[in-house]
Hints:
CATH architecture of the largest domain: Sandwich
Number of domains: 2
Largest sheet: 4 strands, antiparallel
CATH superfamily of the largest domain: Gamma-adaptin ear (GAE) domain
Order of helices and strands: EEEEEEEEEHHHH
CATH class of the largest domain: Mainly Beta
Oligomer: single chain
Shape: elongated
Strand content: 25-35%
Amino acid sequence: MKVPSRLTPLPPGGGEVTYTYTVTNPGVVPMSNVIVLDDTCGPISGPFGVTNTNGLLNPGDTWVYACATNVPVSTRNIATVEGNGNRITALGYAFATVLVEAPALPNTGSVPIQQVQAQQGNRGSNVTTLQQFLIAQNEGHAAQTLADVGATGYFGPLTRAALVEFQTNAGISPALGNFGPITRAYVSAHYR
């Protein structure tokens, strides 16, 4: 079992999260060489709660491990535990998702950005806000490249590519890279 210390969304920008891994042996033979790995967090410390001195995870034992990391964007990760018993390797998996709030899409003057159409060639604070939103979502290569460039306020091909990635991952169709009525409705329904 894997549980993050934060079960409610982190504020925009993320924060520190400690994952706790609980490893048990539901079998009938002791397990040796128990290893816990996480695809996004390391190093993992532990085990804690070991009551024997033989280094084996005995049937009925519970060992606890922990790992702390900074989570800047919403992340789903996988923990894997491996152990050996009776010349058989046993594997276990646990998944955890930590959510990070996207920055709010603020009002721009008297009209909220959800009501402003943005498309390639536009410039201004609405585009900057959209770029900041896309960077925070971190939906793929284009969003990561946009993060490297920064929010420029110009809706060029890179912003369009990052918006297409966001639309594709959100299931918005057609994913044309315009911040039009369909995408505005999705954002209005899913983000404050």
